């Protein structure tokens, strides 16, 4: 069973969003009623706003054994049209009164009214573990978004491995403000607590006061992205009481992008808690995580989860760096209707190529230095990880945020360019260049430092390096 607590529901809290809350008994009745109306469909789309209605629609699809396509409500018209055409959903689930764009509004529609209290009924027998549960679309940075098919067994295996790493139980109440069309907020942040038999409090938006109230009210775990923690650090510095309140949580967890060393230190200073990071992709779910029973190491994403294998294929002249390849029960089943792309993502011996570059620390933890396509800089005959330079720059007190890219250079092939958000008054560029040269090898120093007001980020907090002009 993917969500066993819904088969024997109680009056314990299950989901709470700004538009409402339900117990397990209420959620089971809603999901069973809606599931009966979508049973037998090939796929259903859910207009995945961060609402109780959307979460209920997703749960209904999972319990009915119907693959769910969570749709980003902020998707542009071209992207949305592609997703609908590629996934072919037979119906779209949405909250009553929601206006849907033309690209998806032409589908048959079922409203998810969470104020209904239907007569409880049982669920049909669940499909086997290999059956698809979700089709989650990737960001599409190298072309149109691809639909990653995630099986029911992959979701269960990954969430159980995370439960082991984080000592996650039904007694935990998770809180976050993540979107629910993506693996982080949907699989981990919504399906995760339901699989454990615990509860979710979705905040809708996040700030120090709101998070403090959630933890004071019983939240034990917090999920966030680096942008959240960066803003929370400022809130807690201005409101020490809020920081102390959040410090009563059991775990603070960050993902979807790297959290800077500066923000790690700010959060720990104001809350007393060290943030734990984890690592994964849409296609792989979560692969590594800092464990609850170990002190996290800043700059790393923890150890491989139970039953997960991670290997680093050495990069020539990479100074100990390697391409991250993985295998385990949580890997996706393939890209929807793209067999060639699916085959290209795997090695001959069955490992998935993540496209990331990393290294092992002396303590056996994985440290990532960036994406092979954008963060492996070839300069002067060396292959250099952008993340290593970024981490070095973040050790300088005058650097708040940084992104490093390779820019075309007639002499070096690529020269290292650092885009820096200063913490206060900007220092002379040479000071930062010399700082890196002293910490790392001289060939890893930036050849150019550009100061910017902010770095371009997507909704998950990841820096969009393609928007930085070389």
Automatic annotation (TrEMBL):
Recorded superkingdom: Bacteria
InterPro entries, A to Z: AMP-bd_C, AMP-bd_C_sf, AMP-binding_CS, AMP-dep_synth/lig_dom, ANL_N_sf
Domain (AMP-dependent synthetase/ligase): residue spans on this chain: 8-336
Matches recorded under Pfam families: AMP-binding (PF00501), AMP-binding_C (PF13193)
Domain AMP-binding enzyme C-terminal: 388-462
Family: Belongs to the ATP-dependent AMP-binding enzyme family.
PANTHER family the record matches: ACYL-COA SYNTHETASE (PTHR43201), ACYL-COA SYNTHETASE FAMILY MEMBER 3 (PTHR43201:SF8)
Stated name of the protein: AMP-binding protein
Lineage summary: Bacteria, Bacillati, Actinomycetota, Actinomycetes, Pseudonocardiales
């Amino acid at each position: 069973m993917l969500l066993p607590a819904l088969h024997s529901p109680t009056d314990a809290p299950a989901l709470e969003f700004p538009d409402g809350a339900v117990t397990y008994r209420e959620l089971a009745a809603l999901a069973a009623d809606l599931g009966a109306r979508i049973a037998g469909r090939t796929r259903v789309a859910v207009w995945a706003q961060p609402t109780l209605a959307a979460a209920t629609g997703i749960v209904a699809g999972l319990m009915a054994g119907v693959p769910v396509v969570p749709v980003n409500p902020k998707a542009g018209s071209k992207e949305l049209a592609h997703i609908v055409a590629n996934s072919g959903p037979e119906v779209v689930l949405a909250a009553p009164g929601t206006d849907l764009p033309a690209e998806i509004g032409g589908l048959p529609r079922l409203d998810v009214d969470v104020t209904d209290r239907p007569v409880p009924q049982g669920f049909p027998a669940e499909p086997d573990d290999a059956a698809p549960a979700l089709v989650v679309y990737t960001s599409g940075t190298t072309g149109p978004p691809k639909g990653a098919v995630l099986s029911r067994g992959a979701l269960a295996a990954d969430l159980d491995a995370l439960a082991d790493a984080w000592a996650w139980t039904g007694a935990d109440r998770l809180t976050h403000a993540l979107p629910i069309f993506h693996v982080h907020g949907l699989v981990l942040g919504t399906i995760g607590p339901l699989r454990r038999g615990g509860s979710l409090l979705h905040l809708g938006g996040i700030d120090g006061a709101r998070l403090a109230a959630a933890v004071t009210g019983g939240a034990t775990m917090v999920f966030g992205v680096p942008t959240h923690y960066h803003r929370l650090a400022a809130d807690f510095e201005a409101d020490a009481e809020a920081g102390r309140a959040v410090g009563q949580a059991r775990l603070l967890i960050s993902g979807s992008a790297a959290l800077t060393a500066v923000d790690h230190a700010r959060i720990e200073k104001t809350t007393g808690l060290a943030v734990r990071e984890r690592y994964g992709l849409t296609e792989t779910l979560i692969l590594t995580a800092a464990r609850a029973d170990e002190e996290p190491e800043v700059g790393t994403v923890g150890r491989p989860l139970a039953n997960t294998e991670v290997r680093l294929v050495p990069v020539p002249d990479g100074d100990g760096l390697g391409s991250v390849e993985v295998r385990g029960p949580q890997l996706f089943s393939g890209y929807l209707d793209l067999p060639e792309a699916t085959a290209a993502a795997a090695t001959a011996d069955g490992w998935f190529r993540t496209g990331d570059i990393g290294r092992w620390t002396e303590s056996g933890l994985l440290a990532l230095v960036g994406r092979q396509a954008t963060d492996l800089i070839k300069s002067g005959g060396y292959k250099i990880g952008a993340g290593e330079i970024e981490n070095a720059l973040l050790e300088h007190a005058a650097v708040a945020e940084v992104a490093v890219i390779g820019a075309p250079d007639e002499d070096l092939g690529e020269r290292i360019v650092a885009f820096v958000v200063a913490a206060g008054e900007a220092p002379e560029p040479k000071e930062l260049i010399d700082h890196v040269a002293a910490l790392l090898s001289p060939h890893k120093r930036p050849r150019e430092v550009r100061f910017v007001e902010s770095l371009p980020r997507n909704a998950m907090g990841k820096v969009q390096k393609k928007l930085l002009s070389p």
